[in-house]
Description:
Helix content is 73%, strand content 1%. It has helices at residues 9-28, 59-82, 88-127, 135-180, 182-185, 191-230, 246-265, 269-292, 299-347, 353-370, 372-398, 404-407, and strands spanning 236-237, 241-242. It has a two-stranded antiparallel ribbon with strand order 1-2.
Amino acid sequence: MFVSFFPRPRVFFPSAFAWILLCILVWNLGGKDWGAFIGLPQLPHGQARVIGVSLFWSRPFLWFYLYYWAAVGLFGGAWRLIAPHPWARWSVWGTALIVFMTWLQVQVTVAINDWYDPFYNLVQAALTHSGHATLPAFYEELLVFTRIAIVAVTAGMLTLFFASHYVFRWRQAMNDFYVSHWSRLRRVEGASQRIQEDTMRFSSTVEDLGVSFVNSVMTLIAFVPVLLVLSRHVTSLPFVGHVPHALVAASLLWSLLGTTFLALIGVRLPGLQFRNQRVEAAYRKELVYGEDNADRARPPTLKQLFANVRKNYFRIYFNYTYFNLGRILYIQADSIFPYIVLAPTIIAGAITLGILQQILNAFDQVRSSLQYLVTSWTTIVELASIYKRLRAFEHAIVGGPLPPIEATLDDPRGWEGGSNVIPHPASQAGQGI
Length: 433
């Protein structure tokens, strides 16, 4: 799964993580100020951020672009010397480009959050008939948003286009690797499905979850400071009283509560999804054999195999019932939680409409990022089942023992073996499919 696409994964991923931490540390310890030596200084202390599309080609942003790609160049160049890999252009440089575009999209949300303050304050002035709002000023604010939105649309479109090619290249790398070992893999149950379908699903799901995870981390990095600044307007929480950095504390506690709750009630789902792929593959394969062999796919055998399918689906339905109940209840409560937190501040009239919108958006961004597991749990369950299938598949390449979940599976007749397919009397003794 990884060796086919990344150079020496066991070393590559830890080194990438360490390099990222080092680059972040250097940036925060003074690297962000090095741009002043080439005419790209940071904003003076206390100066407000630029509001509008010009933010993206401001001097601080241009310096970050140079810093980021210089770091990527050093890391990618080092790995090209240490362990050349035929897919390195996609796995190393392609991943770096996706991360960069994800960061850019997060910065778009920050820019829109900055725009909320002047726009909604203008709306509030217009609604209160204070005379401080004019029609040209209103249209000008809408134009500012439109320009930022154009950046968002362009970045999103390019990211999706490139990610589609990235996923297919990863699938191609896995496909080539498994096909080169086909003589050993062909005897594994569902080998054709695992190469044709599971490789596609694995690469696309990992890419989706990876981008979502990076987006969540970068959103936290971008919005937690914003929320800390906005917390000066909210100094107390309902039923609790004064809390330092109340908005950050509330979002952190609520998100951890939801994540822990859903992880506990969904802990059985990965195993059930894996078994579902196994029983479906066994039933499908027996039907395929029956197309060419009159002694295969007889009604009693198909009845038993479909009973396995039915039994596992009903288990999944039951487990998803209480999981979805908990998930939906949490999501509905989540929609009103910010207003519960802000209720005393709103009733006291301590903030303007613009600040309220900034707080709600920043609070939602931080909360949703911390709820990564909540929103991605179903996809993670699916990925875990695909990973188990491919991991068991790869055991055949090295001749290692199959994992317990691959080697045994409950059968209504009490049979257990190397496959969940019920052996046909005409097959060789002990031979699994």
